[in-house]
């Protein structure tokens, strides 16, 4: 078994989907969806090793349920569609912001407010994995675009400011265009 684990690590196999000392694979996500003027859907995910992954217009995507949960298997299916970007987050920085997520999970959300039309929406989220249920719980940090929703906790504001600072500089990457 040890040999098999080492082999997966050496080959960089995404399907292994192991967690690190942060005890889960996916930590943060930024997702852009727009149905106006042609369908657009793209995501950036940050994993527990600090690697940033992306996709654009996946054929199939598993979304969280009405309560904000997504199963381990559904998250794994999503992850297996991703492409690695050139961005890597320092592990100390990653740990710093992930440690704020638990308090952000208890933050009050503002009432949804319509701000734009046909701009779509970009949501900034973190995930907390629950091993007993084998589900990830999405923690909304902020949603911008057509409808604005803000997690009012100080920790959510700090996570949002960090996530927005990671936005790509190339205009062709639409995940953070808001």
Task: Compose a concise summary of this entry.
24% of the residues lie in helices and 33% in strands. With 178 residues, the chain is an alpha+beta fold.
Pick out the low-confidence regions: 1-21, 170-178
Order of helices and strands: HEEEEHEHHEEEEH
Helix proportion range: 10-25%
**What integer value in Å does the Rg equal?**
16 Å
DSSP summary, beta strand count: 9
Write down the overall geometry. Answer: globular
Biggest sheet statistics: 9 strands, antiparallel
> Approximately how much beta-strand content do the residues carry?
25-35%
> How many alpha or pi helices?
5
Which structural category do the helix and sheet elements fall into?
Answer: alpha+beta
